[in-house]
Structure formats: structure tokens, C-alpha cells
Amino acid sequence: MKILTLLLGVLTAVYSKPNFVIIVGDDIGWNDFGFHGSNQIPTPNIDALGYNGVFLNHLYTQPTCTPSRAALLTGRYPMKMGLQGTPIKAGEDRPLPNDIETLPMKLKQLGYKTHLVGKWHLSSARRKDLPTARGFDSHFGYWNGYIGYFDHFISQNVNNATPPLSGLDLHDDIKPQWQYRNQYVTDMFTKKALEVIDKHNVKKPLFLMVAHLAAHTGANGTELGVPDLNYTRRTYSHITNPMRQRLADVVNRLDNSVGQIVKKLSNRGMLENTVILFFSDNGAQTIGLYQNHGSNYPFKGLKFTLLEGGVRGSAVLYSPMLYKKGYVNNNLMHLTDIYTTFICLAGGSVDYDVDGIDQWPTISYDFPTPRHEVLLNIDELEGYSAIISKGGRYKFLNGSYQAGIYDGAYGETGRNGTVPPYNIQGIIRSPVNEAIKSLSKQQPLTPSRIIQIRQQLDISHCNGKTRTRDSPCLRECLFDLWEDPCETENLNTTLPYVVKLLKQRLNSYINELVPERMYPVDLSSNPRFYNNTWCTWLDDGQCYKTM
Predict the structure, then answer these.
(1) How much is the pTM?
(2) Comparing C-alpha atoms, which of 221, 269, 222, 226 is closest to residue 245?
(3) I need a labelling partner for 467 at 20 to 30 A (CA). Which of 92, 330, 434, 529 fits?
(4) Sulfatase N-terminal domain: from which residue to which, for each copy (predicted)?
(5) How many domains does the chain have?
(6) Is 140 helix (H, G, I), strand (E, B) or coil?
(7) Residue 156 and residue 146: Cα distance in Å, rounded?
(8) Within 10 Å of residue 130's Cβ, how many Cβ atoms?
(9) Catalytic site residue 543?
(10) Which residue is catalytic, options 36, 58, 115, 121?
């Protein structure tokens, strides 16, 4: 312990108040990144972040957008805030509780400048619910779950509303941004992120969160927009599914965004003192609602589920501050831990009731994690819940989302003979690797090291288990994730004592559950009342009303 304290003391002396940059992908599957073993979609910049830094191989998220963002920004399990269920709809008054200090609020108290570019999705009924009222100095982006890739509209079907509620959801703080129409959303958000970095006073620490639309479906929930469809078809002709070709282009352009952001940090001399985290907020939605043709292979389960395909996050972290670099971290982690880890790394402290744990010693030194379990969720309305315990070994599920509609094994393998080879030189020549290579203490990345780490990350063999579309966990399921990471064998009757223990642990959280708040979409939020723009409609006097 004395050695750990000494090491952390030296770290604090060298790096005072690091910059934090979080880049979030939306609905991107486990198998939609090159580093997990598929060659279908090149992600050289994200791959390079991990190969130079650390792959957080067991970072768990929530099953959908709103809960994951709530967990990240509050350090608390969403079920303690009534946000454990369906993502907030446009026109729904269901805000993040106002008595909770968010990550940007805590960092502002520590002297940080805080900025959000992209998606919010934690309510916009009132101005006090917006990002700039919850700790961010600025926000350029959208308030709801998704927008069009070019028109920046969200259209939503609502009972008793004809036509659907539809309007612009692109704002600079409160101001609608019509002038950006027809600009490709990923490029637009990248440009804004670069502007934030360019304008930042490097004498102050920076917290920048870039929450991309990619690869969530846009517009009316079905669009996967690309700038040049002919280019997409040519470049991804090895993929036979036309919509997955689009997804590949969308994800690759997101990867380009990561490269530009890291390069800008380097050019401004900020990379030396920055922690960069990239993760996807939940698994892909291969079929069904918001279907984006992503792949969670080899896992079962899609977005909305508590199976590995829904909640085992794809996450990489890079910082020159890491003591150990270029490795796979297999310790158990949860999104709530990012809240606590970043605040502690900035010299702050967290409240006693926060669920997140300071994981910096685990991430930086690969020390064993103090976390022994993760509550994946308790959704009392849908009637399903899950917990991982025993240091990450056993997972207990009680029930399934909508009778197991998304519990199957879906998604392309990306490992057939038609896919191109893994482009190792593309990773070495990527903007991310070039920027990192310029740092004085960084060991150069080699092809052999890339191959070695990638082999550790590719679990498509499922530990020799056969990947099947078993019946969903309509009642109780127990999986040994160490032996059976693809959740193929239900041990519910084989290990009754483990089931009993995990049920007790799951039930221990029930007393802390805040009932899920589900409200109908308020038809008075209809953008046609506000110049076809989504507005803070419950602050009606402050909106530009046209009807």
C-alpha cells in the first residue's frame, strides 16, 4: 500500500489536473471495431488508442442511451434515479434529478472548463434540464435520442398525433442552429470539438465530452446517412448487406473524428497531460427498433438486453499518465467508475452514496480492482434485472426485455474469406499513433505487439462453447462468464447456491430503487408550435412560439 501511495504521489506531482476527453459512440457493437477481431470495418485510430494505452475489456454499460449517460455523469446506478428504463423520448418530461452533482459540475468546482458536443438525452423540458444548467460551460448538439445525419431533425410517432412530431434538434446552448442543415453530423461535431480545443486556455484544465450520433439510426429512427453512397458501396463491397455497408462507413468516419481530435490535442501541446476515453454507450441493435445492422458477435443479446451483447462495453483509454501501457485490462468495471476515477484524478472527492469506484490504480498499474460486483440494472416495469458478482465471474439474470425479443445471437462474424486483411500499417500510420509517437516517453507501436494484443481481445472462440440461439432467460439464468463468456450454458440448476447468493445480492438493491418515471409525450412540445424546432416547451414564455 505504501508503494501505491508513493507512486500516486509521484504521478500527482508530475501531472496536475489532467485534461479529460470522453468520446462516445452510439449503438456500436462489439464486432464493429477492428481490435476485436473482425476485418469488416477499419477503426485504425480507436485501435491505436488502445494499443498504445489500455483496453478496458470488462467495462460494463447500461443497456440503452439515457441510463448509460446518467451512470457516466452521476456515478450512480440509474435505478437509484428512476432512469433505469426506456430512453427519454422527445417531448417527455423526465429529467436527471436536479439535486445530483454531475461530473462536469464537480470538475468545474476544481477549476475545469467543461464542454459537451453532440448528444445530451437527459431531458430538455425546461432550461434547468439542459447541459449548460447541469455543469457544462457550453453545449453544441442535440437534446434528444437521435437526429438526422444531414437535416438534424428528429421525427417521432406519438399516439393521437398526426402527422408525427417533427422538428430541428440542433442547438448552441438554447439557440436553434438552422444554418448547419445539410452538413454531415459527424463532421460537424468534429469541427466543433476542434474549435473547443483551439479556443481553450491551456493554463486551465479541460473536460470535453464528444457524444456522437454515429452509429445510432437517425431522422425517424431508420436512417444511416453517408455523404457519398457510391463511395460507401465501393469501399465496403466485401460486405453484402447494403445497410451494413452504410454502418461501416458511419463507424469509419467516427474513427476519423477520433484521429482529428487526438491530433489537435497534440498540436496544442495538450496531449501530454490528457486522459482520453472512448466507449460505445451500449451494444448494437442488429434487428428491431432503431435497427442499425451492427454486430455484437460472438455475444448474444442486443441493445435493450442485459446479456453481454447489450452491456459489455467496447472501451479504450489512453494517457501518457498510464504507468502500464499497451495491454488488455480484464478487471471488472462499470461506467459509474469513470465519474469517480476522473474526479479523484483531478484532486476532488465524491459523495458517500456514489456507486462508482476510483479505478485509476487498476487502469494505470493493472492492480486488482476493488470492485467485486456490478448491478447491471433493475427494471421493475419491464420485469427484468441482472447482476455480475464474485469478481466478475458469475452473472445472474432474472427475466428478459419484452419476453426475450432481442436475446438471440445476431450479427455478422466478419471473419469470412471475402474480408480484407487487418491493416496493421494503417494503424501505425494513423493520426492517433503519429500523435502519440511524438511524445517523448512513449514506446513505439510495433506490428508484433498489435497482433499479440488483438489475439487476446478476439474471443470469437467462446472458450470452445458452441454459440447458439438458446431460448431467452424468461425466468432465471446463471452464467459463468470466465468459462462461458458467450453465455451459452445456463447453470441455474447446476449451481443453486450461487443462484441463491446472487439473488440475495440483487434483492439487496431493491430498497434503493426509485420507481421508474414514465410519462407520455406531451403534445404541447410539438415543434410546429415553435417554428419547427424542439424547444424547452415547459419554459413556454422563453420559446419562440409561432402558433
Answers:
(1) 0.96
(2) 226
(3) 330
(4) 18-347
(5) 1
(6) strand
(7) 10
(8) 23
(9) no
(10) 121
